[in-house]
Fold this sequence. Notes:
Elements: H1 10-14, E1 25-29, H2 32-42, E2 47-54, E3 66-72, E4 76-80, H3 82-85, H4 89-96, E5 101-104, H5 107-114, E6 125-127, H6 128-131, H7 142-150, H8 170-190
Parallel strand pairs: 1-4, 2-5, 5-6
Antiparallel strand pairs: 2-3, 3-4
Amino acid sequence: MNIYPPTISKEAVNELPVLSYTDRRIEVITTLPKLHEAIEVLKQEKWVGFDTETKPSFVKGVKNKVALVQLSTPQVCYLIRVNKLGIPPILSEFLAAPAPLKIGLSLHDDYRVLLRSCKFKPTGFVDLQKIIKKVGIEELGLQKMYAILFGKKISKAQRLTNWEAAYLNELQQEYAAIDAWACVDIYEKIKDEL
Length: 194
């Protein structure tokens, strides 16, 4: 027996309160020493949230490289500015390691964009789209999954923003962190039912 509704309408999502994490920390990573510190923290977890952001292209045939990699614990989200740092070996090794599990959504898109910048074999990843149906939810988008499970709306207002900007503003940082945190929250909520 399914304990969650299988679907939710866009109208129902729009009526929900907007998700905001006031008790969690965001760290923007632009240096190798800070990246090393972040990876050491992330290695202590059983699973972490994962997402990437790429500057949108509105020109046919132009494909941008990944600008941001988000990796989060339940308490902190690291926004790794790979457009400034590149993808150092410590990051590609972390992404290729079997542990901790890296929880994301529509991971084939993230892999495709990341592989433009570095070669690595993604290991230890869990795609929420591949497991969510096991708990009776038919929605495959992060916003609707989260709405069904938690009764909150994830704002998508910053989705088409410039992720290669010199500085990420507070709204960009929050948007990017929420996507990674939401993946962790969803996995923690459903893992025992899988």
